[in-house]
Amino acid sequence: MLLKKNIPVNYVVGKIKGELILVAAYGIIIALFHQFFPSLRISIPIAVPAILATIISLLLAFRSNQAYDRWWEARGIWGAIVNDSRSLAREMTTFLGMNDGSEEIETFKKRFLNRQIAWCYSLSQSLRGQNAYIRSIDFLVDEEVKFTRRFSNMPNALLKLHGMDLRLAHRNGWLNDYQQVQIDGTINRLCDAMGKCERIKNTVFPVTYSLYIHFCLYLFIALLPFGLIEYFGMFEVPLIIAIAAAFLLVEKMAIHLQDPFENKPTDTPTTAISQTIERDLKQMMNDSPEIGLNSKSDQDKESVYYIL
Amino acid sequence: MLLKKNIPVNYVVGKIKGELILVAAYGIIIALFHQFFPSLRISIPIAVPAILATIISLLLAFRSNQAYDRWWEARGIWGAIVNDSRSLAREMTTFLGMNDGSEEIETFKKRFLNRQIAWCYSLSQSLRGQNAYIRSIDFLVDEEVKFTRRFSNMPNALLKLHGMDLRLAHRNGWLNDYQQVQIDGTINRLCDAMGKCERIKNTVFPVTYSLYIHFCLYLFIALLPFGLIEYFGMFEVPLIIAIAAAFLLVEKMAIHLQDPFENKPTDTPTTAISQTIERDLKQMMNDSPEIGLNSKSDQDKESVYYIL
Amino acid sequence: MLLKKNIPVNYVVGKIKGELILVAAYGIIIALFHQFFPSLRISIPIAVPAILATIISLLLAFRSNQAYDRWWEARGIWGAIVNDSRSLAREMTTFLGMNDGSEEIETFKKRFLNRQIAWCYSLSQSLRGQNAYIRSIDFLVDEEVKFTRRFSNMPNALLKLHGMDLRLAHRNGWLNDYQQVQIDGTINRLCDAMGKCERIKNTVFPVTYSLYIHFCLYLFIALLPFGLIEYFGMFEVPLIIAIAAAFLLVEKMAIHLQDPFENKPTDTPTTAISQTIERDLKQMMNDSPEIGLNSKSDQDKESVYYIL
Amino acid sequence: MLLKKNIPVNYVVGKIKGELILVAAYGIIIALFHQFFPSLRISIPIAVPAILATIISLLLAFRSNQAYDRWWEARGIWGAIVNDSRSLAREMTTFLGMNDGSEEIETFKKRFLNRQIAWCYSLSQSLRGQNAYIRSIDFLVDEEVKFTRRFSNMPNALLKLHGMDLRLAHRNGWLNDYQQVQIDGTINRLCDAMGKCERIKNTVFPVTYSLYIHFCLYLFIALLPFGLIEYFGMFEVPLIIAIAAAFLLVEKMAIHLQDPFENKPTDTPTTAISQTIERDLKQMMNDSPEIGLNSKSDQDKESVYYIL
Amino acid sequence: MLLKKNIPVNYVVGKIKGELILVAAYGIIIALFHQFFPSLRISIPIAVPAILATIISLLLAFRSNQAYDRWWEARGIWGAIVNDSRSLAREMTTFLGMNDGSEEIETFKKRFLNRQIAWCYSLSQSLRGQNAYIRSIDFLVDEEVKFTRRFSNMPNALLKLHGMDLRLAHRNGWLNDYQQVQIDGTINRLCDAMGKCERIKNTVFPVTYSLYIHFCLYLFIALLPFGLIEYFGMFEVPLIIAIAAAFLLVEKMAIHLQDPFENKPTDTPTTAISQTIERDLKQMMNDSPEIGLNSKSDQDKESVYYIL
């Protein structure tokens, strides 16, 4: 269970290749120096790097925790977007269905749900700093696109269009008073999810911590050979590389996890999630006549993107 | 209280048997080497493996925490499914009951609650990557089965059927406006629970951590004999096995806890919980005339599956 | 403030008496051996047990945290039951009061609130694995008792009766549509609380952790004398007992806290809380004409049971 | 920013004065003994107290965390009381205002909001184990006082009066159906806040932990001089006092934080918060014609009480 | 990714410049003394400062955690304010829009949304202890300003005006009963957010911790040279400065994070967030005809202020 098929190990190792080469060179120089200039041998008690290691472990644990929490919160928000999109689709299709058979209502429902799909794609794109229209434009009618052009925040504009359609449906008597308010509550939750994503995206993890940990880490690596060389001789080189690699990997992972919307392979898979929403909403609208795929293969497809 | 009757200790130990044999062989080789080649004795200060032990402890604590949180969250979600299923059943049976005596309503209620039971089973099955129809099909009528075949996500299809039945009940005047919206809120919560389970199922725990901890652990075990052999001689072998077993068990447990829907004996007992829901809902529908079992024996039955 | 009057210190110490006697005997044997067989003296560096102590501290901290969280969650759930019972009573007495003076409504209210008291007692009893009828039966009419006999889960049956009474009140026009739905929401919250208690009761804390910590602890205690004897001689015996007692107490406490519904003096005081609910609800029903006790004495009564 | 003007440092130090004098005496005796009886010198490796220090740090961290969480939760609950009191006042003044000009409604509103102020004061008093009527009685009419005398729990009685007034307003047509239910929801939240405060007040922090930490701490202080005296001689005395003071202060603070309703200067400032609520509600009722104070001075007044 | 363009490193380092100069001077004096008075050399085992380092790390981790939580909570509250402001705007524009075309309603909507913008600015200002009218007055009509002058808490006064306008809209039939209650719920959430900000602002972090950590830190720095000088000689000076800088930076950061409303460059960017709300609400009111900026540039503008 430890290893998933598609781990981009090369991708991960590639991130710290540069650092590791430097560390190796540094270790070799120290070892050679130790070998050929016995009179200049410097050796420090192992306790000094040990203390640093403990402190770094504590700080990395703190940092990993916070980074993991951000990442998990981001994942949870997109999970909530899935849930609320499905709830919205169910409510729109079953509340409005009171007057079945009307062509007008069917068109209305379809436009509404397509706009919800567009909302997911546009939020995904704009969180990654890319053009919010790229995929979403396929699910919008021209008037809607024109309307959203006036807004800085396209997903917010789409939510306003949701609200305006809700008013239309209420005015036409397709929704009763309670149903309007209930669906409005669902849209509020989507609005909350959008704002939470923006908060995570826009709030930088305190930089001092990063710098401090980084600095302690290099201090530790610089001292380590002097503490080990007495016992291990030339063998200290692989040991130093191994220990340094471990610490650097954990630090790297925290850096990746803490910014889950940066269009990297380790991101929250917002595009894959949006595709799931598209599939589910299309099936709930009834315009996807093919037999459903089995759900397992979908999971495989998704999990490819989750790995660090 | 520490030991529950049904602990599959063998199951647990079996998981690390392979590793322990290797560790034992390694320890014996070192000890023999130490014994018969005194001139080549290598001994390192105990502080070196000690540092590694502290770091590993911190990282395992972090990891166990996250794994435990995932497991506990999964358990909490299924607890919420129990609660919302009961609430749904209570609301359906008491809200709709306004026009008692009607055969049609009774059939309707029964179909609705049976579908809720089917929903639990199908969610349980599909989370484990198994055929979602296996148990649930017994609680569905043919039309429902046919309807769900069009969907990739069967539990979601059942929720849509819930919503359509709600519309039917509202249109027939069996539910008033508020009651429809109230029950719709309960279905929304079920939809949330479903999405949360999928999130846990589909989100892989960051693999780098696993690899890093695994790697540190073996490094630690490899160094440990050299640190202990000076003081313990041959006695280092059982000591090494004991310490290695402890660390490996904790790591193994974290690996198990972090994926609570994998059809292993340590999973969230979704099938047992679904059976509890089936029992409760059947009794609330009144078609289970037998005297209730005492609740204790049920607990025993369930707890068998909870143990790691 | 550290010590509360009623600490059952004996109760606590009694739990680890057996272990302590063994530890003392073990320490004495080692010390005597050390004294009389100087040639066989074994002494290990203090660093070895020290490492184990650090690891055990980390694991006990993790475990205490989880156990404390379970205990605090259980306490919080029963706090919520108090709140929702009071809210339910307030809503029933003030919503239904629209047609004051009617004998029928007064009887109805009384039956409803009595059933809520019965619900608390029956939940408390069934969580502890005891007969759910023992106290609750005094607050139920015969028909209700007969109805609940058909259910495995008595508290759930009582909630269904709540729902049926709500329907009755609504049909008779005693409650308007909104009020029915609002009270239904309160009953949903009680249903949630019930399910959460069952979840805590039925979910065993992962046994591997317990075993692992237990095992490490004894390994640590077994090694400790050899690390201390060089510096302390015979004085190591009280020191070992003191340190072992401390660790064992913390472990014991975690074991107790993690299962808060086991009918032990350290449990969540569900019976005392149910009595508080009974008192409050009776006073809100107006059939308790005596002057209220001052609230302080009640607190004293309760706090007796909270101590470990 | 570290020091606030009004820190009662004396208050804090006063709490541990006794302990510190004992520690100083103990340190001096050891040092003199060491000086004048060189043949009996006892010196233990610094590692022994060091291990204890690490363990105590971990346990104090756990305890501080839980104590801080209780204190912060208590503060959060009173924050929620402020919010809900304001919401209640806003809802009462704007919902009921539909029929402006009526003398009767104005009196009704005033009585309701005064009762809400009384509720805050009575909750604050009864949490501290004091007479719940002391300040609150000024805001109640005689009938209300008489009514509450029948209850053990005065704040709960006031909430019931709230509910009865809500019924009155509904029956008189001053509130429509939705408004009654909405305000009832706000009262439910106040009821929850009350119950949560009682839960914190009545739930004792597990005593074993306290005892265990206390015991470890004194063991540590007793061993410390023997570990330091070799390196520091007479200078160990101030060092021991300093280290002991630090640990004792942290322990003391945890003890204070964990019980936030005990009428100590470090409590949750329930009285000050109640005064803020009184001020805000009076201004919202319009019977406070003076120009508002600037908000800064209020903050100063409050923050005086928050410091430990 | 580690470094953002606009890190005010000088700002950060400036904060600890004084301390670092003192530390450097201290280290140099010790080193010179060691060099020139060999007979008076004092050297302590490295274990003594090592223990202190571990303890300080644990305490700083606890403190950083709490400070980070306060900061993140503050950020989350302002995120919720964004969400609820948008929801409020969407609800006001689409619920009230039932009678489109009416000049009166359009004026009403505009006044309402402008007041919401004013509320954000006034809350931002008053949290920082500044004049609450500075920016907000531009968005208020004279009557509103006059009304708020009577209140100590201006944002609360604005919420009361919101409620009064809601009553007006309801009385005029612009909003139906459910819509009034739904919008009232949104205002309640804004009221909660306001109270939560005040809670964080007014609750001082327990001062004892700060003092204790500060004190331990200086004790540690004072002892450190004596532990290192034996191995490093004059090289201990840069090492001491580096280690001291690291600890002092982490402490400083905790101090900054724990008070997120103090008008410092590391604050929660309440003004920038208010500007975002202003932009979004203006666009939703339709009086901002220009084409929206792309959202990326906005994020850059904001993130400037988030860095420590």
Automatic annotation (TrEMBL), chains A, B, C, D, E:
Cellular component, GO, one term:
plasma membrane
* Residue intervals passing through the bilayer: 20-37, 43-62, 204-225, 231-250
Q: Sorted alphabetically, which InterPro entries does this protein's record hold?
A: YneE/VCCN1/2-like (IPR044669)
Q: Where in the cell is it found?
A: Cell membrane
Q: Can you name one GO molecular function term for this protein?
A: chloride channel activity
| Keyword Translocase recorded | no
Membrane topology category: Multi-pass membrane protein
Keywords assigned by UniProt, alphabetized: Cell membrane, Ion transport, Membrane, Transmembrane, Transmembrane helix, Transport
Q: Which family does it belong to?
A: Belongs to the anion channel-forming bestrophin (TC 1.A.46) family.
Query: What protein is this chain from?
Result: Bestrophin RFP-TM (Chloride channel)
